[in-house]
Amino acid sequence: MLTLETERLVLREMTVKDAPFMLTLLNSQGFLDNIGDRGVRTLAQAENHLIEGPLNSYQEHGYGMYCIELRQSGEPVGVAGLVNREQLPGIDLGYALLPDYLGKGYAVEACHAVLAHAKTLAIGELLAIVNEGNGPSRALLEKLGFVCDGPIPWGEGGEVLLYKIRL
């Protein structure tokens, strides 16, 4: 089981035991507003989301989304990792934190660990998508070294900004 460590955080592969945490994260207002409603409302749906998403990705690709835990307490605070999305021509950096843990530098710290891991996988370029109005996420991507490549169509009549970084 893959584990990535930083000064304050541990990123680890998720299991179905993370379903209660994922249920909370997926229904947090920031997730709903900036990423979207995944329709996960029950513990069973959260377990299924984990099985079909991260757990399947670990098996199929050797990477996926990782649970971000505080090193000192082991408390889960968010997710960050590598995602294959059908709509994108490459591997995507994804991340989300619970509202109480925003603005503390955890996202940038976790994403630095994911970028370092992506380099070990010989991923030459990483993508990221963000809603134009999500200023904090755009600032995070730019702090990490991503460059905006412009808007791309997304969903039903919408669009997102595509960011790229060479590793």
3D structure, described in words:
- With 167 residues, the chain is of the alpha+beta class.
- Strands 1-2-3-4-5 form a five-stranded antiparallel sheet. The chain has a three-stranded antiparallel sheet with strand order 6-8-7, with helices on one face.
- Helix 1 crosses helix 3 and helix 4 crosses helix 5.
- The longest helix is centred in the first third of the chain and has 19 residues.
CATH class: Alpha Beta
DSSP strand content? 25-35%
Instruction: Classify the fold: give the CATH topology.
Output: Aminopeptidase
How many domain regions? Answer: 1
Walk across the major sheet and give the strand order: 1-2-3-4-5
What's the alpha carbon Rg, rounded to whole Å?
Answer: 15 Å
Number of separate strands: 8
Q: Cα distance, first to last residue?
A: 24 Å
> What would the principal axes of the Cα set say about the shape?
globular
Q: Helical residue percent? A: 25-40%
Uncertain residue segments: none
Summed over residues and divided by their number, the pLDDT gives a mean of 96
What is the overall number of helices?
Answer: 5
Keywords: Transferase
Pfam family, one: Acetyltransf_3
Protein name: GNAT family N-acetyltransferase
GO molecular function: acyltransferase activity, transferring groups other than amino-acyl groups
